[in-house]
Structure formats: C-alpha cells, structure tokens
Amino acid sequence: MIFSSVFAFSQSKMACCKESATQKFAMLASDKKFVMSHANPRPYHFQSTIGKAITYKTADGKEANAFEIKAKKSTNNWLFVIHEWWGLNDFVKHESKKIYNDLGDVNVLDLDLYDGKVATTREDAGKFMQAVKEDRAQAIIKGAVAYVGPNAHIATIGWCFGGGWSLQASILAGKQDVACVMYYGMPEQDINKLKTLHADVLGNFANKDGWINPKVVAQFEANMKAAGKKLEVHQYDADHGFANPSNPIYDSGATKDAYAHTIAFLKPRLK
To answer: Which residue has the higher pLDDT, 43 or 255?
Structure first.
C-alpha cells in the first residue's frame, strides 16, 4: 500500500519526539508519495442561501473565520465541522448544508483551521497543513466553544486532516461534547487523552488507505477500549478521501453508507 512505508517511517521517527497525532499527520506532507497520492480536486462550486461567513474571538486574543448555518428555531445543539487538508472550501460548506438539513434541530459551524487559506493543488494543501500551529488550531477550537456558549451541546465531524482534528475538538470541548465523527483521520494514540473524552466516537475508515490502514484502526479500537470509551467503526473497501465527490477516487456506495451511519449516530445525540 502506498502509505505503508511512510506510516512506518513516521512512527519510528516520531516515537522519540512525542509529536501529537495531528503533528504526525501534518509531517506526512513532507513525503512526495503522500502528496502525490492526493489528486487535485475537481472543480466544485456551491453557493449557500442559508449560511454566512462570520468571525469570532479566539483564545489567543486573535480572531478566527467560520461558516455558520443557524437552526430555524433557537437550539443549544451545535455541530463543529472541520475541513480536509484542502481548507474550508465549497465541498465542506455543501456537506455542512446537507448534514444540517438531515439533522434538523442543529446549528452548524464550519471551523477554519487554515485562517482563510484554501488550496486547489496538493502542493499548496501540504504547505497549508504543515503551517498549522497546534496552539493556534486549539485556540480556534476553544474560541468556537466560547462562541457557542456554556450551554451548547457540541458534536464534531471532519474528514482527512479534519478527521483527526474532529477527535481533538471533541476532547477540547470537554463535558459539552456529545458526539464525534471522524472520516479517515489520524486517531489519538494517547490513552490518557482518550480517557478525557465525554462522548462516543464514530469512525469511517478506508481499507485501501495505506496510511490509516486496518492495523492502525485496530489499534485505535484497542486504545479506546483501554480508555473505557465507546467507538463505532465502519470500514470500506475504498481509498482515503472516498467521501469527497471532487476527488477522482470518490466512492459513491461507501459514501452513502458512511453518511447513513453518520446521521444515525448524530441524531439521537443532538436532541
């Protein structure tokens, strides 16, 4: 598999340095094979009639960008959406609207961990992903938690780069967290961090993903069990990035099934 050697290399190199799960993911952008395995996205355009761009204050004294869709009726239910390594693009906004319509009673907030940058080439995507500073990303997430308020029930979802950050956002949301969905993202490997989760996790993974492969997923399952946390896993005979229709390796069957599980997982937890 194309990512196997990369993952093994990163595992051995990083074991001594104790990089976080998100830093391990970002470092893979230095490997040409990893970058080339991500085809440039096909043009994808979406114009929302119900969402709007906003800014909010972050925990580091700065501001962050986001795309917000407010529920028709006032509710404390919030879904944080975290983008792929491409950035907060039209695909993410379109997916957010779809989830919003299917969930019903929920506010949706698309977080922008790239601070306004959006990539259209894999080279730029790699640069942008590696430029993300852990403390800044955490400040953006903490700022979002503060923005929605202490009474908010927060669920998270993300793909690829955002899949790993969805899990980290759930950890950072603390007791306000009610659900976490991650699509082929880097699992947290620190059992002590996993013990701080306050919600169940749903993971949609790709068996042909040579990086977050079935072995990595199995280890995640073992770690979650050791942490005493519930993890629901669905695995597909598909490639990394299978759920993005702008991706040439898009798998409609896997996407449909994973999405159905995602909505079924989120609905009872956001009520």
So the answer is: 255
Quote the number of domains for the chain: 1
Burial of residue 269 (number of CB atoms within 10 Å: 0-12, 13-18, 19+): middle
Whether residue 55 contacts residue 63, with contact meaning beta carbons closer than 8 Å, is answered with yes
- What's the confidence (pLDDT) of residue 14? 39
Quote the distance between the C-alpha of residue 86 and its chain's center.
12
Q: Is the pLDDT of residue 6 over 60?
A: no
CATH code, domain with 72:
3.40.50.1820
Neighbours of 59 (CB within 10 A): 18
DSSP result, 238-263: S-TTTT-TTSTT--HHHHHHHHHHHH
pTM of the model: 0.91
In angstroms, rounded to a whole number, what is the distance separating the alpha carbons of residues 154 and 108?
10
**Which tokens hold the place of 76?**
């404390």
Neighbours of 258 (CB within 10 A): 24
What is the extent of the structural domain holding 66?
4-40+48-269
**Is the predicted pLDDT of residue 105 greater than 70, yes or no?**
yes
Task: Compute how many other C-beta atoms are within 10 angstroms of the C-beta atom of residue 8.
Answer: 10
pLDDT digits (tens, 9 = 90+) for 173-185: 999 999 999 999 9
Residue position matching structure tokens 């830093």: 23
